[in-house]
Each structure stands twice: as structure tokens, then as C-alpha cells.
Amino acid sequence: MEAFAKFEHEGWQRVAGKYDSVWASSTRQFIPPLLDSAEVTGSMVVLDVGCGPGYVAGAAGERGATSRGLDFSKEMVAIAQKKFPHSEFQEGDAQNLPFPDATFDRVLANFALLHLPDPERACAEAFRVLKPGGKFGFTVWAPPEENPYAKMIDDAIQAHADLEIDLPTGPPHYLFSGREEFRRVLERVGFNGASMIFKLHSIRWNVPSACYPFDAERNAGVRTAGLLARQTSEKLRAIQLAIEESVRRYAEGDSFSIPKAAHVVAVSKK
Ligand SMILES: C[S@@+](CC[C@H](N)C(=O)[O-])C[C@H]1O[C@@H](n2cnc3c(N)ncnc32)[C@H](O)[C@@H]1O
What we know:
Layout: H1 2-22, H2 24-27, H3 31-37, E1 45-49, H4 55-62, E2 66-71, H5 74-83, E3 88-91, E4 104-110, H6 119-129, E5 130-141, H7 148-160, H8 179-188, E6 192-207, H9 212-220, H10 223-229, H11 233-248, E7 251-252, E8 255-268
Parallel strand pairs: 1-2, 1-4, 2-3, 4-5
Antiparallel strand pairs: 5-8, 6-8, 7-8
Helix pairs in contact: 1-5, 7-11, 9-10
């Protein structure tokens, strides 16, 4: 798993400067339901884990909360600090949070858990740094059967990619398989499973061209980019054409409006 952490760290450092223009229009749409599910209000102290450019900390700050952000990418931390000067950002590992026990009212992680070698450990750390009665809220991409964007990428890869390549092993792409497994993991680290909110939230990602998603995955992604970088040019071309064909189904005028879905989860520390 150390190799996976290194691979992820190098990847996020490399693409940090592109994240805002490429992915934010998708991931930011999940922040209002995330904050609502975790019931973030003013006067709370909130931690944004895997904060990237700091959107969750910024949005919690807009609700009146005192927010901090943490990311293991120095580049991301610098971008976040510039973008949201009223919040405080620092480098650190989601699986080993540099905060004392019972510090925060809310710990939030928007699309961060899927990138960790040990997501359960990050859940345990969130539990530890929450005050009693605090809530942990996070989002994870829904699997292809519930998520048309994931399905188009996954179908193209399954059909055309060489999967026998040398890539560091990470956690499952869509994390735990369904509501009950999420509940079990969260209970195992101490959360009150009965309090768990688990919702599927869908958005539309508007992109300017049919080639945009493939280019985004290849040039501004990390895990899929690693897989694409290890393909022959023929296989890469076949993957690209398959993705573009799927994207065209979502044409709307001059652009493309692709459905994407994620699970929004929130749970309380008893
Ligand atoms: C998909 S981005 C999500 C960014 C942001 N939360 C958002 O709402 O768009 C994942 C972020 O997790 C960070 N990350 C990955 N592994 C991490 C770790 N072990 N500890 C802290 N941050 C990590 C990456 O640097 C990246 O900024």
C-alpha cells in the first residue's frame, strides 16, 4: 500500500493546478448535499479532509463555521489557502490526522476516501478527532450500475484496456459495496450505525466537447490516468473512441451534459 500512497501523492502534486478548471464543476455540486446531510451550521468547527483546493472548507465558512482543511499535497494546500484565505489549510495524512482527540464538530471528506490506501483508518481518525455528538460526512462515487459517467469510463476500459499492467494496488474503485458495508465499517470504528444517512445524489457534468472526459481522465486524473499511461497507442485510441461515442449520447446543443452520481454519507459519533 506504500507504493499506492506514493503513486497517489505524486499524481495529486502533478495535477493540482488543473483540478479547479477540470473537476471542480463536478465535485463542487456535491457539497451542498454533503453539508446538509452532516447538518453543518454556523458556530461549528469543521475539518475538510483531502480538501484539494478547499471548496468544502470554503462552503462551511460561508455557513458561518470555522473551517480548516488538510491535504497531503503541498500544491493543493497552497491553492486552497490562496482561494479561501479565511480558512486555515495544512499538509497532512487523512489516515493519521495531526489533531488532538475531540477537536471538531464536523469532519467532512468530499471524494477523498477513494484515494486512500486504508479508508477505514481515515474513518477511525475522523471518529477520534470528532467531539462527542459530532458528525462525519463524506462522498464517494457510486459504482457504474448507478453512475452513468463511471459506466462509460469503466465499459471502455473493460472492453479495450490491457488490465495486466504494473499499477500499485489500491482500495476498490467505489469503496465499500453498498449501504450495509458502509454501516458495518463505520460501526467498527465507533460510529452510531443507526444514525447513518446514505443517499444517492446525481448531478450533470457539462463539458464542452466529446473528447473532454477522456482528456480530463488522462491529463488531470490520477488513478485512471495511471492506467491510461500504461496502454499501447492502439489501445488508448480504442478507449478514447469508445468514451467519445458514449459522451455523444448526452449532447445538448453545443455541449454535453453527462449524468454522474455519488453516495453522500453522514454518521454521528454517539
Ligand atoms: C478527488 S480530490 C477531492 C478534492 C476536494 N475535496 C473536492 O471537493 O473536490 C482528492 C484529494 O484528496 C487528497 N488526498 C489523497 N490522499 C490523501 C491522503 N492520504 N491524505 C490527505 N489527502 C489526500 C488529494 O491530494 C486530493 O486533493
